[in-house]
Design brief:
The complex is a heterodimer of chains A (280) and B (321). Chain A contains 5 helices and 18 strands. By secondary structure, chain A is mainly β. The termini of chain A are far apart. Chain B is built from 5 helices and 20 strands. Chain B has a 9-stranded antiparallel sheet with strand order 6-2-3-4-19-18-17-11-15. Chain B starts with a strand and ends in an 8-residue tail after the last strand. Classes of the chains: A mainly beta (280), B mainly beta (321). Strand 13 of chain A pairs antiparallel with strand 9 of chain B. Chain A: Belongs to the rad1 family. Chain A: One of its GO terms (cellular component) is checkpoint clamp complex.
Chain lengths: 280, 321
């Protein structure tokens, strides 16, 4: 049964039908947020939002807008479910990681609604695989209440430069400290590990700093274990925006270009590491 | 104390540290007004390596008058400063090593450039421990055998042996040197792959063998000195020449250089005890690698590693008198 991007008979049962000529335009971006088994899927007419959370302190979101898909049909305003992300990715990549030019795996993703499994039709070179993955009741994603109006400091960096620092971070440090300031050191990543401390300073007027809007000096600490998974998103992206609000909450937004040059976003929210200060 | 190395010398510094890490786990750092020494010794105190960097190596070499600074730190901590060796030359403009008397940490700063515009500044403040000077107890002048060659020869020779190999046997006669892998167990010999390499005396720039000999080395320690890039210094006036000495000597008080040997065991009988020293030199730095050799079967199994006098010492050894 060759896949086609036109409506199929029997589609009436589905509340969501999404097709892609190249499944990598979905699987690659999902890999950037796969640090936990379960993800919350939320589909609206605008597209797909996939959310993964950790310890109620970290949230990662991948946005794949409707325009990315060759076909994206939603019969309802909003549809949500929870699914095992690892299993989903295994299915999406079931034909292996072939990078032979011209050969892509096509995807038709269908969902009938509450209680039904997510059905995937994958086709490569005339071979079709059908996968049905059970869905669960979606949990409500955490609302970090991060508003653009409350952003105190913002920088946009080329991902290349941040990748270098992240790949060298001292993993014996439990925390990653981020300092943003209108004066020296401008943008600094610090670790405090077994052998000592390390600081990576990005000057505000270098080529890799595309935007620098820092109004107040802020230093915040975040658990390294929470931020480490974000390096996957960093690896995929070409630009990253780093924002902190007045409470010290961190927002990392990654601009990802897929195989066809289209833009998708991945976003990480992280709450600051609160230290219990026993001294006054 | 404030030293700045620039350009390709940063890579040399990084490679020196990486090659030291193949021998020991701690880096002994010593700076005087005349040089900066980076030294290490292995856990059994049978192999020692050091790099002496002269002021010429640095763009800035400032040691306060009369002051010397000594410390030791885990070598992994220093290696962490110089990650991604291959891109160092392209990205790092300069490396600064600083210490101020009131500080308890040694500061390494890497100034990186990106497309010739100032980029990332990497600062590492490394905690250290105080220590005494680490010196090798060895006298090169008493070596009966001297072999001198371009470092490339040693690099190419060692390449023929699998990296997983533990020991090699080095033998010298009056006209040739040969290296073969050493297999301990007689029964293994028929199953193991044996590699044997001959180098005639003509391959060497100097080949003086007054005492035909055979001894075993730990391959990992033998290949450590091949790590730094000699090619950069080939155009120097002095060139870059490894000296290879095979010696047969009895280490005793008369051969002390700095510290008396701190042997924690009774002195061993005066059998042949062999040390080998590899040194690389240029106008900007000198490096020395000492490796003690493992006893050959003919020397008797009673002579274990513990029985050898220690090759290198610092006066912080436990069991001080």
């Amino acid at each position: 049964m060759p896949l086609s991007t036109e409506s199929q008979p029997g589609d009436e049962q589905y509340v969501l039908v999404a097709t892609l000529d190249n499944v990598r335009n979905l699987s690659n971006i999902l890999k950037a947020i796969t640090f936990k088994d379960h993800a919350i899927f939320n589909a609206t007419r605008n597209g797909l939002k996939v959310t993964v959370e950790d310890s109620k302190c970290l949230q990662a979101n991948a946005f794949i807008q409707a325009e990315i898909f060759q076909e994206f049909v939603m019969k309802e305003d909003s549809v949500g479910f929870q699914i095992n992300l690892t299993v989903l990715l295994d299915c999406l990549t079931i034909f292996g990681g072939s990078t032979v030019p011209g050969v892509t795996t096509a995807l038709r993703m269908c969902y009938s609604g509450y209680g039904f499994p997510l059905t995937l039709f994958l086709e490569e070179g005339g071979v079709v695989t059908v996968c049905k993955i059970n869905t669960q009741e979606p949990e409500e994603p955490i609302d970090f209440d991060f508003c653009s109006t409350d952003v105190t400091n913002k920088v946009i960096l080329q991902s290349d430069s941040l990748r270098e620092a992240f790949s060298e971070l001292d993993m014996t440090s439990e925390i990653l400290q981020i300092t943003m300031s209108p004066c020296q050191p401008f943008f600094r990543l610090s670790t405090f590990g077994n052998s000592g401390n390390a600081h990576y300073d990005y000057p505000k007027d270098s080529d890799m700093m595309e935007l620098f809007q820092c109004t107040t000096t802020q230093t915040n600490k975040y658990k390294m274990s929470l931020l480490k998974p974000s390096t996957k998103a960093l690896a995929l992206s070409c630009k990253v925006s780093v924002r902190t609000d007045s409470r010290g909450f961190l927002s990392l937004q990654y601009l990802v270009r897929n195989d066809d040059g289209q833009i998708c976003f991945v976003e990480y929210f992280c709450s600051p590491d609160e230290e219990v200060d026993e001294e006054s | 104390m404030d030293y700045v190395a620039t350009g390709s010398n940063v890579k040399v510094l990084a490679k020196a540290i990486h090659s030291l890490s193949r021998i020991g786990e701690e880096l002994y750092f010593e700076s005087t007004g005349r040089w900066l020494a980076l030294r290490t010794v292995n856990s059994s105190r049978s192999a020692f390596a050091c790099f002496h960097l002269c002021p010429l190596f640095f763009q800035r070499f400032h040691t306060p008058q009369g002051d010397s600074f000594r410390c030791k730190m885990p070598i992994k901590s220093v290696q962490a400063v110089f990650k991604s060796l291959s891109s160092l030359e392209k990205t790092v403009e300069k490396c600064r090593i600083e210490w101020k008397p009131e500080q308890s940490q040694l500061t390494f700063t890497l100034h990186c450039k990106m497309c010739s515009v100032l980029g990332l500044l990497k600062t590492h403040n490394l905690s250290f421990q105080d220590c005494e000077s680490l010196q090798a107890v060895f006298d090169k002048e008493r070596s009966p055998n001297v072999l001198r060659a371009q470092p490339r020869l040693l690099v190419d020779t060692v390449l023929h042996f699998p990296p997983s190999l533990e020991e090699v046997t080095l033998s010298v006669t009056s006209d040739r040197m040969w290296l073969k892998n050493h297999v301990e167990d007689e029964s293994d010999q028929s199953q193991a792959m044996m590699t044997e390499l001959y180098l005639s005396s003509e391959e060497f720039e100097d080949f003086v063998v007054t005492l035909a000999n055979q001894h075993h080395f730990c391959l990992k320690e033998l290949s450590a000195p091949t790590a730094p890039p000699p090619d950069d210094f080939m155009c120097d006036a002095h060139g870059l020449i490894p000296h290879c000495y095979g010696t047969s000597e009895i280490a005793g008080p008369s051969t002390q250089i700095n510290q008396p040997p701190r042997s924690t065991h009774a002195p061993t009988p005066p059998n042949h005890r062999l040390f080998s020293c590899f040194s690389l030199s240029s106008s900007q730095f000198r490096s020395l690698f000492f490796g003690s050799v493992l006893p050959t079967p003919s020397q008797g199994t009673s002579q274990t590693l513990q029985g050898q006098d220690v090759l290198a010492s610092d006066s912080e050894d436990e069991g001080s008198p």
